[in-house]
Specification:
By secondary structure, the chain is of the alpha/beta class. It has one domain: 3-Layer(aba) Sandwich (Rossmann fold), CATH 3.40.50.2000. 25% of the residues lie in helices and 16% in strands. It contains two helices and three strands. The protein has a three-stranded parallel sheet with strand order 1-2-3, with helices on one face. Strand 1, helix 1 and strand 2 form a beta-alpha-beta unit.
């Protein structure tokens, strides 16, 4: 039986993670899943917001998997609410 290659998904999707970048949170698995999904959804994206000891390793993984156009890592920025009263 002849298999048909998967068709690209018509609309790109973005996954989102926000939190401390720690090993036990398995954010690397999210990045690897994006690499797999990109085969059928080239425009898929992922936004990872957070800081932590895993960040350098995750940045390296994004480069190794050539996901620079699909995965964006951003620092968490704490804001303080101000009152004008």
């Amino acid at each position: 039986m002849k298999s048909t290659p998967p068709r690209p998904h018509p609309s790109p999707r973005t996954s989102f993670f926000a939190g401390r970048l720690l090993h036990h949170k398995n954010v690397d698995m999210l990045i690897r899943a994006i690499a797999i999904a990109r085969a059928t959804r080239p425009g898929i994206g992922c936004l990872i917001v957070g800081n932590g000891p895993e960040k350098p390793r995750l940045q390296q993984l994004v480069k190794e998997l050539n996901l620079e156009d699909n995965v964006r890592l951003m620092n968490f920025v704490k804001t303080t609410a101000t009152s004008t009263a």
